[in-house]
Every structure is written in C-alpha cells, then in structure tokens.
Write a structure and sequence with these properties.
Elements (H helix, E strand, L loop, with lengths): L6 H11 L19 H7 L6 H11 L4 H5 L5 H10 L5 H8 L3 H11 L4 H10 L3 H13 L11 H14 L15
Helix pairs in contact: 1-2, 2-3, 7-9, 8-10, 9-10
Length: 181
C-alpha cells in the first residue's frame, strides 16, 4: 500500500503559490497566496485523505507542521526535504498507527470523500458528528486491546456504532449493524 509522496506536484504548488510558515493558506481550488508544506500536500493529495496520513508520518519523522513553522526552517530546507523524503512504507504506517494501520488508512480515506448525504446521515446518527470520526479512529487504533486493560467489545461498539450505521464496518471482523437502509 506504500504511499508515494507527490514530490513534483508539491514543488510545483510551492512554485505557483509560494511557501509560508504558520499558515496552511487558502486551500480552496481557486485559492491563491502562499501555503505551508502541509497545505501544499493537501492541495496535491495523491489519494483523498493521504495528505492527513503524510502529515502524521512526517510529524513522527520530525518534519510536521512544527518543523515547517520553526524560525530555523527555511524554504530551501522544506524544498530539500520534499525532494529527498522517502515514500511511506507499510512498515512505517504500522509503526505510526499500530496493528490496525490498514483500517485506519481506509477510514481516513473514506472520511475524505464523504458525500453530502452521508454527512447528513452522520449528523442524524450522532449529534456531535465531527467527534464521531475521531472516536471511531481511536477505537480502531486500540481494537487489538479488546479484552485487555478494561477495554471491552462494548466500548469499541459504542465508539464505532455511528460510523458503522452510516458507512459500514471499520474492520473486517466488525459485525454488521442495522444501517436503516
């Protein structure tokens, strides 16, 4: 599943828009003005959602938003990192996200392409919809701990039920739930 870094697209975006610190910039399709490294990645998202994954992995590599925004970081350093940063391997994804890394990548990618109807259904499924995706992601991260440390299947089900009712299972071993279709 390796995630390839869209080096040329990111560099081209920085050529066109300029580089900034402490500012993701205007990320709308018609946006103008400078963007930070991670804003440029979001504008060049190789697969919808991968920009968020890349940002987290690069943060672990000490090249996340804090690095971009450091007074010691220059545009030349950012461009050099883009040119030389290795692609993100499955092994690295497992280090960052744990044993359920495949399912977490799938969840992030799925969130990135929600339709308006899914967002409306999501709001109906859980009043605090923006928290539901986060809760589902956290539950998925610790899914391998079910039955240990006081984390039970019921806890996992409570945290993931809104997602599973609207979108479907998060993990291949999740039981189907009534989706009201």
């Amino acid at each position: 599943m390796m995630i390839e870094i869209p080096r040329e697209a990111i560099l081209s975006t920085l050529d066109r828009r300029g580089w900034a610190q402490e500012n993701y910039g205007d990320l709308s399709p018609e946006g103008t003005g400078p963007v930070c490294l991670h804003g440029a990645i979001r504008l060049c998202d190789p697969v919808p959602g991968d920009a968020f994954i890349i940002e987290q992995v690069w943060q672990r590599r000490s090249h996340g938003p804090d690095w971009n925004d450091s007074p010691d970081t220059t545009e030349a350093m950012v461009r050099e990192y883009i040119r030389t940063a290795p692609n993100i391997t499955d092994e690295e994804l497992a280090e960052v996200y744990g044993p359920q890394w495949r399912e977490i990548v799938a969840l992030v990618r799925r969130c990135a392409v929600f339709t308006l109807d899914e967002c409306k259904a999501w709001d109906s499924a859980w009043a605090a919809a923006r928290d539901s995706a986060r809760d589902s992601a956290w539950a998925l991260v610790v899914r391998d701990l079910i039955g240990r440390h006081g984390f039970a299947q019921e806890h996992y089900d409570t945290l993931t039920l809104p997602w599973r009712r609207v979108i479907g299972p998060l993990h291949p071993d999740d039981e189907e739930v009534d989706r009201g279709e």
